[in-house]
Design a protein that fits this description.
Blueprint (H helix, E strand, L loop, with lengths): L1 H18 L22 E8 L2 E8 L5 E10 L10 E14 L6 E8 L18 E5 L2 E5 L4 E5 L2 E5 L5 E12 L6 E12 L3 E14 L2 E10 L8 E9 L11
Antiparallel strand pairs: 1-2, 1-14, 2-3, 3-4, 4-5, 5-6, 5-7, 6-9, 7-8, 8-10, 9-10, 10-11, 11-12, 12-13, 13-14
């Protein structure tokens, strides 16, 4: 009964966001926006949930660039007391364009290793660090920035016994109904190709109390209710003042 209510709540939030300012940050969401943090800012992200735990650090050493290192622990079945593997990820993000209002733009990302929710079906978790990928986040603002839409197409290849290619996709809507500090966020993501990812959704609330912290609570599941697919997750995102610069901080 509880799992049914959780699934319905998650689906309702996705639907609400589909009907509905600033760009939403990634945190435990698979989708990302175009934005690179200001030059010199460092970011620490910690998430924990039923499926995975994440530790991630991002630094903006150069203007319009972010460099990220992350570590993940997996739990992909209904037995939440046992672990199913781990992975690491290293990647870069380059912000190519930002509009005058600083509410939308375009970027490219590339790296190795995959987030837990994007380890593709048919590829073992131990192979996640053998996966190389690229994607292109695009952010479009609507309704005087009360609604922000991210669209992120991409591709990946996993170098194992046989190379497994995939087209990856992810889209996310963030709605700020009353305040820029509180958002309803929903996303859908998956992958198709030689390896595929069963389409999944994730939805939740994100609170942005100040310029240095974000807190999010989300629920996600596969659309076909795969056993072990449902998961609750909470994440904290902390930002520093500019200090980590190569050259003078701008």
């Amino acid at each position: 009964m509880r799992s049914s209510l959780a699934r319905l709540s998650g689906a309702a939030l996705v639907g609400l966001c589909a009907l509905a300012g600033g760009p939403a940050v990634a945190q435990q969401f698979n989708s990302d926006n175009y934005l690179s943090k200001p030059h010199g800012v460092a970011t620490l992200i910690v998430t924990t949930g039923q499926q995975s735990q994440t530790w991630m650090t991002t630094v903006s050493l150069f203007p319009n660039w972010e460099l990220t290192a992350a570590a993940y622990l997996f739990n992909d079945d209904e037995d939440r007391t046992t672990g199913d593997g781990h992975s690491t990820s290293f990647y870069a993000k380059w912000m190519l364009h930002e509009n005058k209002e600083k509410t939308g733009g375009f970027a490219v990302k590339f790296g190795g290793g995959m987030k837990p929710s994007y380890v593709i079906d048919g590829t073992a978790f131990s192979s996640a660090s053998k996966t190389y990928w690229t994607n292109a986040p695009l952010t479009l603002p609507f309704l005087d920035n009360r609604l922000s839409w991210d669209f992120m197409p991409g591709a990946s290849v996993t170098r194992d016994e046989d190379n497994a290619w995939a087209f990856t996709y992810s889209t996310r809507l963030a709605w700020y109904p009353m305040s820029p500090k509180l958002a309803l966020v929903g996303e859908v993501y998956g992958a198709e190709g030689e390896a595929d990812l069963t389409p999944e959704y994730k939805a939740g609330l994100r609170w942005e109390p100040n310029a240095y912290a974000n807190i999010a609570l989300t629920y996600g599941n596969t659309f076909d209710n795969t056993p072990g697919g449902s998961r609750l997750e909470i994440g904290v995102m902390l930002f520093t003042p500019p200090f980590a610069c190569i050259g003078p901080c701008r």
